[in-house]
From TrEMBL:
Belongs to the LDH/MDH superfamily. MDH type 2 family. Substrate binds at residues 93, 99, 132, 163. Its EC number is 1.1.1.37. Keywords: NAD, Oxidoreductase, Tricarboxylic acid cycle. GO terms for molecular function: L-malate dehydrogenase (NAD+) activity. The active site is at residue 188. The gene is mdh. The keyword NAD applies. Catalyzes the reversible oxidation of malate to oxaloacetate. It comes from Orlajensenia leifsoniae. This is Malate dehydrogenase. Pfam families: Ldh_1_C, Ldh_1_N. InterPro entries: L-lactate/malate_DH, Lactate/malate_DH_C, Lactate/malate_DH_N, Lactate_DH/Glyco_Ohase_4_C, Malate_DH_AS, Malate_DH_type2, NAD(P)-bd_dom_sf. It comes from the Bacteria. Gene3D superfamilies: Lactate dehydrogenase/glycoside hydrolase, family 4, C-terminal, NAD(P)-binding Rossmann-like Domain.
């Protein structure tokens, strides 16, 4: 029997990732078996039928924890009382679309959603932005929610983190459960820096294991020329093989992100994009991915990691891209 109730708002709920998320949330995988959920599905008018269809299927699934499902195209009612907001619906870059057009189109989505969160969400609201460009969309939403602490606005890099774990598991013939302390730094884009300098497998440094397996030079090359680009460009690889972008793995990562945020990390650290507190020289306020732990319901950036020259260069490059995105959005007047 559930002893608490949470309102979870999903934007773009009629889309692919939305469809993969809804049933897992309703089954209790987001907030655990003791929390009943009230789902709010936000769509644009063209997406309403699809979301309504998903709502019918949710009813047909008879989830004991699911208390209600509302479908709407009104952001104010979707976010009213929301404890968790999964901001999935966005305007991804289309063919021939200039960056300014992309950012402006997303500003038109995330600015009003930020304002609706500010006006009506619950005091403990937690937001994760999935829709791309995710880091900058999170900044836009946060800028329009001045009464909500900025650290409640995060962006998803857990999929990149999980992709890195998958690649390491394969290379080292080690189960994912044995791997710890992989980090994703920077932007959720091809400039991100998947970092295994501090990672361990079965308690031993991953870099040492790779060096044993491949030799020192080949291990360094594998990390630089195979591992990093494969993780950073995995989204394109999925599109090429599957004919459509990542869906179930993106939904899975979103569930992992929120469930760790609420319940705590127990297996080393993970990765999430959140407003920088100035750690590791990342400008304060910039929504950038870091190695993080979740303690008492809050993300904390893992402190004190040593970064070598290679890591510094890769992080600086991704942060520079984020700064450029932020400046472009500022020029468009989207930061309030
Ligand atoms: P879909 O096109 O299947 O679904 C998006 C849905 O959002 C559509 O139903 C659309 O009607 C709705 N929508 C658009 N504007 C809206 C608004 N203002 N309010 C509410 N709903 C709105 O895309 P899907 O495959 O579900 O992907 C969604 C987003 O996730 C895309 O931006 C995609 O780029 C991004 N991704 C992010 C990932 C990450 O790791 N951060 C990985 C997967 C994915 O590529």
């Amino acid at each position: 029997m559930a002893n608490s109730l949470a309102t979870v708002t999903i934007t773009g709920a009629g889309g692919q990732i939305g469809y993969a998320l809804l049933f897992r949330i309703a089954s209790g995988q987001l907030l655990g078996p003791d929390t009943a959920v009230r789902l709010r599905l936000l769509e644009i008018p063209q997406g309403l039928r699809s979301a309504e269809g998903a709502a019918l299927e949710l009813q047909d699934s008879a989830f004991p924890l699911l208390q209600s499902v509302d479908v709407t195209d009104d952001a104010a009612s979707a976010f009213d009382g929301a404890n968790v907001g999964l901001l999935v619906g966005s305007r991804p870059r289309g063919p021939g679309m200039e960056r300014g057009d992309l950012l402006a189109a997303n500003g038109a989505i995330f600015a009003p959603q930020g304002a609706a969160i500010n006006a009506g969400a619950a005091d403990d609201v937690r937001i994760v932005v999935v829709g791309n460009p995710a880091n900058t969309n999170a900044s836009i939403a946060s800028a329009h929610a001045p009464d909500v602490p900025c650290e409640r606005f995060t962006a998803l890099t857990r999929l990149d983190h999980n992709r890195a774990l998958g690649q390491l598991s394969e290379a080292l013939h080690t189960p994912v459960s044995q791997l710890r302390d992989v980090s994703i730094w920077g932007n959720h884009s091809a400039t991100q820096f998947p970092d295994i300098a501090h990672a361990t497998a079965g308690g031993r440094p991953v870099v040492e294991l790779l060096e044993e397996q491949l030799g020192a030079d080949a291990a360094r090359e594998w990390i630089r020329d195979v591992f990093i680009p494969r993780v950073a460009k995995r989204g394109a690889e999925i599109i090429e093989v599957r004919g459509s972008s990542s869906v179930a793995s993106a939904a899975n990562a979103t569930i992992d992100h929120v469930s760790d945020w609420v319940s705590g990390t127990t297996h080393g650290w993970t990765s999430a994009a959140l407003p920088s507190d100035g750690s590791y020289g990342v400008p304060e306020g910039l929504v950038s991915s870091f190695p993080v732990e979740s303690i008492d319901g809050q993300w904390r950036i893992v402190q004190g990691l040593e970064l070598d020259a290679f890591a510094r260069e890769r992080i600086d490059a991704s942060v520079a891209e984020l700064i450029e995105e932020r400046e472009a959005v500022r020029t468009l007047g989207l930061l309030g």
